[in-house]
Specification:
Largest sheet: 6 strands, mixed
Strand order of the largest sheet: 10-9-15-14-13-12
Helix content: 10-25%
Structural class: alpha+beta
Radius of gyration: 30 Å
Oligomer: single chain
Shape: globular
Length: 312
Protein backbone atom coordinates (compact mmCIF):
# COMPACT_ATOMS: atom_id res chain seq x y z
CA UNK A 1 0.00 0.00 0.00
CA UNK A 2 1.45 3.33 -1.09
CA UNK A 3 1.43 6.05 1.52
CA UNK A 4 1.55 9.75 0.68
CA UNK A 5 3.12 12.33 2.89
CA UNK A 6 1.35 15.40 4.28
CA UNK A 7 2.96 17.66 1.66
CA UNK A 8 1.46 15.67 -1.21
CA UNK A 9 -2.01 15.61 0.41
CA UNK A 10 -1.87 19.36 0.93
CA UNK A 11 -0.88 19.80 -2.74
CA UNK A 12 -3.84 17.66 -3.89
CA UNK A 13 -6.23 19.57 -1.63
CA UNK A 14 -4.97 22.92 -2.92
CA UNK A 15 -5.29 21.75 -6.53
CA UNK A 16 -8.89 20.63 -5.95
CA UNK A 17 -9.73 23.95 -4.34
CA UNK A 18 -8.23 25.84 -7.30
CA UNK A 19 -10.20 23.72 -9.77
CA UNK A 20 -13.38 24.34 -7.78
CA UNK A 21 -12.73 28.09 -7.76
CA UNK A 22 -12.12 28.08 -11.53
CA UNK A 23 -15.38 26.22 -12.10
CA UNK A 24 -17.31 28.63 -9.88
CA UNK A 25 -15.79 31.61 -11.69
CA UNK A 26 -16.67 30.08 -15.05
CA UNK A 27 -20.27 29.51 -13.98
CA UNK A 28 -20.51 33.04 -12.60
CA UNK A 29 -19.09 34.47 -15.82
CA UNK A 30 -21.57 32.44 -17.83
CA UNK A 31 -24.43 33.70 -15.65
CA UNK A 32 -23.23 37.28 -16.07
CA UNK A 33 -23.08 36.90 -19.85
CA UNK A 34 -26.53 35.32 -19.94
CA UNK A 35 -27.83 38.04 -17.67
CA UNK A 36 -26.27 40.75 -19.84
CA UNK A 37 -27.82 39.22 -22.95
CA UNK A 38 -31.16 39.06 -21.18
CA UNK A 39 -30.88 42.69 -20.12
CA UNK A 40 -29.97 43.70 -23.68
CA UNK A 41 -33.00 41.85 -25.03
CA UNK A 42 -35.23 43.46 -22.39
CA UNK A 43 -33.88 46.92 -23.21
CA UNK A 44 -34.50 46.38 -26.94
CA UNK A 45 -38.06 45.26 -26.29
CA UNK A 46 -38.65 48.33 -24.10
CA UNK A 47 -37.51 50.85 -26.72
CA UNK A 48 -39.23 48.90 -29.46
CA UNK A 49 -42.50 49.28 -27.58
CA UNK A 50 -42.00 52.97 -26.77
CA UNK A 51 -41.17 53.94 -30.37
CA UNK A 52 -44.59 52.69 -31.47
CA UNK A 53 -46.92 53.19 -28.51
CA UNK A 54 -45.74 56.36 -26.74
CA UNK A 55 -48.35 59.13 -26.90
CA UNK A 56 -45.75 61.86 -27.53
CA UNK A 57 -44.27 61.78 -31.04
CA UNK A 58 -40.96 63.21 -29.81
CA UNK A 59 -40.61 60.31 -27.39
CA UNK A 60 -41.35 57.83 -30.19
CA UNK A 61 -38.63 59.35 -32.37
CA UNK A 62 -36.03 59.33 -29.57
CA UNK A 63 -36.90 55.73 -28.68
CA UNK A 64 -36.52 54.74 -32.34
CA UNK A 65 -33.01 56.24 -32.44
CA UNK A 66 -31.94 54.31 -29.34
CA UNK A 67 -33.58 51.11 -30.54
CA UNK A 68 -31.99 51.34 -34.00
CA UNK A 69 -28.47 51.84 -32.67
CA UNK A 70 -28.84 49.09 -30.05
CA UNK A 71 -30.45 46.63 -32.42
CA UNK A 72 -27.74 47.10 -35.05
CA UNK A 73 -25.10 46.49 -32.37
CA UNK A 74 -26.94 43.32 -31.33
CA UNK A 75 -27.11 42.07 -34.92
CA UNK A 76 -23.36 42.54 -35.33
CA UNK A 77 -22.57 40.32 -32.34
CA UNK A 78 -21.24 36.83 -32.99
CA UNK A 79 -23.98 34.19 -32.96
CA UNK A 80 -26.84 36.70 -33.19
CA UNK A 81 -28.05 35.19 -36.46
CA UNK A 82 -29.60 32.37 -34.45
CA UNK A 83 -31.53 34.81 -32.25
CA UNK A 84 -35.22 34.91 -33.28
CA UNK A 85 -35.88 38.23 -31.49
CA UNK A 86 -39.45 37.14 -30.78
CA UNK A 87 -39.79 39.70 -27.99
CA UNK A 88 -39.50 42.53 -30.55
CA UNK A 89 -43.18 42.74 -31.44
CA UNK A 90 -43.03 45.92 -33.50
CA UNK A 91 -40.58 44.96 -36.21
CA UNK A 92 -41.02 42.92 -39.37
CA UNK A 93 -38.61 40.03 -39.94
CA UNK A 94 -38.44 38.15 -43.25
CA UNK A 95 -36.00 35.41 -44.25
CA UNK A 96 -35.36 33.57 -47.51
CA UNK A 97 -36.16 29.86 -47.86
CA UNK A 98 -32.48 28.89 -47.51
CA UNK A 99 -32.05 31.16 -44.47
CA UNK A 100 -29.01 32.74 -46.08
CA UNK A 101 -30.18 36.20 -45.02
CA UNK A 102 -32.97 37.97 -43.21
CA UNK A 103 -34.32 41.49 -43.48
CA UNK A 104 -35.71 43.53 -40.59
CA UNK A 105 -37.80 46.68 -41.02
CA UNK A 106 -39.59 49.00 -38.61
CA UNK A 107 -41.12 52.47 -38.66
CA UNK A 108 -41.95 55.36 -36.34
CA UNK A 109 -44.49 58.17 -36.54
CA UNK A 110 -43.28 61.61 -35.47
CA UNK A 111 -45.30 64.36 -33.76
CA UNK A 112 -46.49 65.69 -37.14
CA UNK A 113 -47.86 62.34 -38.30
CA UNK A 114 -45.04 61.63 -40.74
CA UNK A 115 -43.53 58.13 -40.81
CA UNK A 116 -39.84 57.26 -40.97
CA UNK A 117 -38.64 53.77 -41.83
CA UNK A 118 -35.59 51.90 -40.59
CA UNK A 119 -34.11 48.55 -41.57
CA UNK A 120 -31.24 46.10 -41.65
CA UNK A 121 -30.16 43.09 -43.65
CA UNK A 122 -28.27 40.40 -41.75
CA UNK A 123 -26.52 37.69 -43.74
CA UNK A 124 -25.73 34.25 -42.40
CA UNK A 125 -21.99 34.99 -42.48
CA UNK A 126 -22.55 37.78 -39.95
CA UNK A 127 -22.45 40.74 -42.35
CA UNK A 128 -24.97 43.46 -41.47
CA UNK A 129 -26.15 46.24 -43.77
CA UNK A 130 -28.05 49.17 -42.30
CA UNK A 131 -30.91 50.41 -44.47
CA UNK A 132 -31.19 54.21 -44.48
CA UNK A 133 -34.49 55.75 -45.55
CA UNK A 134 -33.08 58.51 -47.78
CA UNK A 135 -35.26 58.29 -50.89
CA UNK A 136 -38.73 59.68 -51.51
CA UNK A 137 -41.04 57.83 -53.87
CA UNK A 138 -41.16 59.91 -57.04
CA UNK A 139 -41.92 58.77 -60.62
CA UNK A 140 -38.23 58.42 -61.46
CA UNK A 141 -37.75 56.05 -58.53
CA UNK A 142 -39.68 53.42 -60.50
CA UNK A 143 -36.63 53.14 -62.77
CA UNK A 144 -33.77 53.38 -60.25
CA UNK A 145 -31.52 50.86 -58.56
CA UNK A 146 -30.71 51.78 -54.97
CA UNK A 147 -28.02 50.91 -52.45
CA UNK A 148 -28.72 50.30 -48.73
CA UNK A 149 -27.84 53.93 -47.91
CA UNK A 150 -30.34 55.15 -50.58
CA UNK A 151 -33.15 52.87 -49.46
CA UNK A 152 -36.77 53.59 -50.33
CA UNK A 153 -38.04 53.00 -46.80
CA UNK A 154 -40.93 50.60 -46.22
CA UNK A 155 -42.22 48.22 -43.58
CA UNK A 156 -42.17 44.88 -45.40
CA UNK A 157 -45.18 42.65 -44.82
CA UNK A 158 -44.42 39.95 -47.42
CA UNK A 159 -41.45 38.56 -49.33
CA UNK A 160 -41.51 36.00 -52.15
CA UNK A 161 -38.74 34.60 -54.32
CA UNK A 162 -38.55 35.53 -57.99
CA UNK A 163 -35.93 35.50 -60.75
CA UNK A 164 -33.77 37.88 -62.73
CA UNK A 165 -31.41 37.31 -65.62
CA UNK A 166 -28.60 37.35 -63.05
CA UNK A 167 -30.17 34.84 -60.66
CA UNK A 168 -32.36 34.81 -57.58
CA UNK A 169 -34.20 37.87 -56.34
CA UNK A 170 -36.98 38.59 -53.88
CA UNK A 171 -40.12 40.68 -54.20
CA UNK A 172 -40.60 42.86 -51.14
CA UNK A 173 -44.12 44.11 -50.44
CA UNK A 174 -43.96 47.16 -48.21
CA UNK A 175 -46.01 49.85 -46.52
CA UNK A 176 -45.17 53.48 -45.80
CA UNK A 177 -47.53 55.36 -43.47
CA UNK A 178 -46.65 58.55 -45.36
CA UNK A 179 -47.44 62.02 -44.08
CA UNK A 180 -50.80 61.42 -42.42
CA UNK A 181 -52.78 62.31 -45.56
CA UNK A 182 -51.44 59.85 -48.10
CA UNK A 183 -49.92 56.41 -47.74
CA UNK A 184 -47.83 54.24 -50.03
CA UNK A 185 -47.66 50.56 -50.82
CA UNK A 186 -44.84 49.28 -52.97
CA UNK A 187 -43.37 46.11 -54.40
CA UNK A 188 -39.58 46.39 -54.59
CA UNK A 189 -36.93 43.88 -55.68
CA UNK A 190 -34.01 42.74 -53.54
CA UNK A 191 -30.99 41.01 -55.07
CA UNK A 192 -27.29 40.68 -54.28
CA UNK A 193 -24.41 41.69 -56.55
CA UNK A 194 -21.27 39.68 -57.27
CA UNK A 195 -19.69 40.90 -54.05
CA UNK A 196 -22.74 39.85 -52.05
CA UNK A 197 -23.96 43.40 -51.39
CA UNK A 198 -27.70 44.08 -51.45
CA UNK A 199 -29.26 46.00 -54.34
CA UNK A 200 -32.83 47.30 -54.46
CA UNK A 201 -34.68 47.46 -57.76
CA UNK A 202 -34.56 45.38 -60.94
CA UNK A 203 -36.31 45.80 -64.30
CA UNK A 204 -38.86 43.05 -63.70
CA UNK A 205 -42.17 44.92 -64.06
CA UNK A 206 -43.16 45.19 -67.72
CA UNK A 207 -45.71 47.97 -68.07
CA UNK A 208 -45.94 47.90 -71.87
CA UNK A 209 -44.20 45.78 -74.49
CA UNK A 210 -44.88 47.76 -77.67
CA UNK A 211 -42.29 49.40 -79.89
CA UNK A 212 -40.87 51.16 -76.84
CA UNK A 213 -41.00 48.64 -73.95
CA UNK A 214 -41.42 50.16 -70.49
CA UNK A 215 -39.87 48.08 -67.69
CA UNK A 216 -39.82 49.40 -64.13
CA UNK A 217 -37.56 48.41 -61.25
CA UNK A 218 -40.37 48.72 -58.67
CA UNK A 219 -44.05 49.62 -58.57
CA UNK A 220 -45.66 51.94 -56.03
CA UNK A 221 -49.23 52.91 -55.28
CA UNK A 222 -50.19 56.09 -53.42
CA UNK A 223 -53.60 56.29 -51.78
CA UNK A 224 -55.54 58.31 -49.22
CA UNK A 225 -55.11 57.58 -45.53
CA UNK A 226 -58.92 57.43 -45.46
CA UNK A 227 -58.90 54.30 -47.66
CA UNK A 228 -57.78 50.69 -47.37
CA UNK A 229 -55.82 49.29 -50.29
CA UNK A 230 -54.75 45.72 -51.06
CA UNK A 231 -51.35 45.18 -52.69
CA UNK A 232 -49.89 41.68 -52.39
CA UNK A 233 -49.04 38.42 -54.09
CA UNK A 234 -52.03 36.16 -54.66
CA UNK A 235 -50.83 32.54 -54.50
CA UNK A 236 -54.08 31.11 -55.87
CA UNK A 237 -53.91 33.31 -58.98
CA UNK A 238 -50.08 33.31 -59.07
CA UNK A 239 -50.21 37.04 -59.60
CA UNK A 240 -49.36 40.33 -57.95
CA UNK A 241 -52.69 42.09 -57.46
CA UNK A 242 -53.54 45.55 -56.19
CA UNK A 243 -56.54 47.86 -56.07
CA UNK A 244 -56.86 50.43 -58.82
CA UNK A 245 -57.23 53.89 -57.27
CA UNK A 246 -58.85 57.02 -58.66
CA UNK A 247 -59.18 60.61 -57.40
CA UNK A 248 -62.59 61.27 -55.88
CA UNK A 249 -64.09 64.43 -54.43
CA UNK A 250 -66.38 64.57 -51.43
CA UNK A 251 -64.43 62.09 -49.30
CA UNK A 252 -61.66 64.21 -47.76
CA UNK A 253 -63.01 66.47 -44.96
CA UNK A 254 -60.65 69.22 -46.14
CA UNK A 255 -62.26 69.20 -49.58
CA UNK A 256 -59.26 67.80 -51.46
CA UNK A 257 -59.44 64.97 -53.96
CA UNK A 258 -58.75 61.60 -52.29
CA UNK A 259 -57.12 58.61 -54.00
CA UNK A 260 -59.41 55.67 -53.25
CA UNK A 261 -60.10 52.23 -54.79
CA UNK A 262 -62.78 52.14 -57.50
CA UNK A 263 -63.58 48.44 -57.10
CA UNK A 264 -61.36 47.17 -59.94
CA UNK A 265 -57.94 45.56 -59.79
CA UNK A 266 -54.60 45.64 -61.60
CA UNK A 267 -52.37 42.58 -61.83
CA UNK A 268 -48.88 41.44 -62.76
CA UNK A 269 -48.39 37.95 -64.19
CA UNK A 270 -45.02 36.21 -64.51
CA UNK A 271 -44.18 35.36 -68.15
CA UNK A 272 -40.79 33.75 -67.51
CA UNK A 273 -38.84 37.00 -67.67
CA UNK A 274 -41.08 39.79 -66.45
CA UNK A 275 -43.98 40.46 -64.16
CA UNK A 276 -46.19 41.67 -67.00
CA UNK A 277 -48.87 44.22 -66.19
CA UNK A 278 -52.55 43.49 -66.75
CA UNK A 279 -54.19 46.91 -66.55
CA UNK A 280 -57.60 45.68 -65.46
CA UNK A 281 -58.36 42.22 -64.20
CA UNK A 282 -61.74 40.71 -65.10
CA UNK A 283 -64.17 41.00 -62.23
CA UNK A 284 -67.55 39.42 -61.65
CA UNK A 285 -70.19 41.57 -60.00
CA UNK A 286 -72.71 39.65 -57.93
CA UNK A 287 -76.02 41.34 -57.19
CA UNK A 288 -77.66 40.71 -53.80
CA UNK A 289 -80.46 38.84 -55.54
CA UNK A 290 -77.96 36.38 -56.99
CA UNK A 291 -76.69 35.63 -53.49
CA UNK A 292 -79.98 34.96 -51.76
CA UNK A 293 -82.13 33.65 -54.60
CA UNK A 294 -82.90 29.93 -54.40
CA UNK A 295 -84.57 28.27 -57.41
CA UNK A 296 -88.10 27.11 -56.62
CA UNK A 297 -88.32 23.33 -56.58
CA UNK A 298 -90.80 21.70 -58.87
CA UNK A 299 -93.86 20.67 -56.91
CA UNK A 300 -94.63 16.95 -56.79
CA UNK A 301 -97.67 15.25 -55.31
CA UNK A 302 -98.86 17.01 -52.17
CA UNK A 303 -98.22 15.04 -49.00
CA UNK A 304 -99.53 15.23 -45.48
CA UNK A 305 -97.54 15.56 -42.26
CA UNK A 306 -96.54 11.89 -42.37
CA UNK A 307 -95.51 11.88 -46.02
CA UNK A 308 -98.65 10.22 -47.32
CA UNK A 309 -100.24 11.56 -50.52
CA UNK A 310 -103.03 13.95 -49.75
CA UNK A 311 -106.49 13.09 -50.96
CA UNK A 312 -108.03 15.54 -53.39
Amino acid sequence: MVKYGPYFCSYRLGLNVKMMVLRINFVLLLLVLIGAAGMAQHSLAFYNDVMVNASDGRHRVEAAKVFTQSFLEELRKSGSYNQPFLELKWISAKADADRSFRIFTWQVEDEKGKFQQYGAIQKKDGTVYELKDKTAFEPDMEYAQLQPDQWLGALYYNMIETKTEKGKAWLLFGYDGGDGKNRLKVVDVLSFDKEGKPVFGAELFLISDGKRPDAKTRVGLRYSSLANVNFNYNAAEEMIIHDYVVARMGIDPEGNAALVPDGTYTGYKWDGRYWKKIEQLPTQTTAPGDIFFQPKKEEGPKKDLFGRPKEK
